[in-house]
Amino acid sequence: MTTAKTKPIKSTSMPPRSARGRVAFLPTMEHLNQTLFLWLTAPVQPGWLMLAAAKFFGVYAVDIVPLLLVTGWLRGDEPSRKVWLQAGMAMLLGLGINQLIGFVWPHPRPFMLGLGHNLITHAPNASFPSDHLTGLWAFAFSLLIQSQQRSQRMTAVALALLGLPMAWARIYLGVHFPLDMLGAVLVAGFSAWLALAGARLYLQSLYRLAVSVYRALFSALIKRGWIRH
After folding, report:
1. Which of 54, 55, 207, 218 would suit a FRET pair with 200, their CA atoms being 20 to 30 Å apart?
2. Using an 8 Å Cβ cutoff, are 187 and 97 in contact?
3. In whole angstroms, what is the distance from residue 188 CA to residue 183 CA?
C-alpha cells in the first residue's frame, strides 16, 4: 500500500510586532553608531597637534586615577582613605562588568570592521563599553556621591569633565564607537551605586587589609614621619 506524499506547508505568519520592532531597531542603532564614528574619527592624515592631544587624553590621561588613589591614601585620615578605597572598588566593579558584557556580547572595534584608521596599537577585543571611560567615571561618580570633603568632590568633578575629551580621543584614535561611551556612562553609574550600596559588606575589612599592607611596606617612612601613619 502506498501513501501519497504531502508537500510541507510554508508558514506565512509574521513575527510579533514587538519582535519586528527590535529587529528594525538594532540595525538602525548600529548605522547611527557607525555614522557618528566616521564623523568623529581622525582623517587619513591627522594634524600633529590633534593627534598628540588625542593620544594624551585617550592613552595616558587615565593614569591619573591610580596616582590620585595613592596620594589620597598617603595624605588622608581614616574616613578619607575609605572614600578612596570605595572609589577604587567602584572602578574595579565597572571593569569587571565590562568583561562580562564583552563575553556575552563581543561587539567588534571599528578597525575590526575596516572602519576608520586605527592610530594606536590595540588588541582586537570587544569594544563595548569603553574600559578607559568606565574606570575613570566609576571612580569619579563614586567620589561624587559619597564624599563630604570639598577637595574630593572637586576632584570628582574634574575627573568627570576629563572623561569628555577622553571619550572623544578614543573615538578619534579609531578604537571605539560613540555608543561605547554611552555604555561606559551607564556601567560607571551602576558600579558607583553598587560600591556604595555594598560598602558595609567589604569596606571595613578592605580598609584593615590595606592599612596592614601599607604599614608593613612603609614602616620606615612612617617612623620618620615622612608619610602619614
Report:
1. 218
2. yes
3. 8
The contacts of residue 122 (CB under 8 Å, 6+ apart) are: 109, 111, 175
Rounded to two decimals, what is the model's pTM?
0.84
Question: For residue range 189-199, what is the model confidence (pLDDT) as tens digits?
Answer: 999 999 999 99
C-alpha grid cell for residue 129? 563599553
CB atoms within 10 A of CB 200: 8
d(CA 74, CA 58): 27
Residues 6+ apart with CB under 8 A from 225: none
The 8-class DSSP code of residue 11 comes to: P
Q: How many residues does the chain have?
A: 229
Over residues 200-212, the pLDDT tens digits come to 999 999 999 999 9
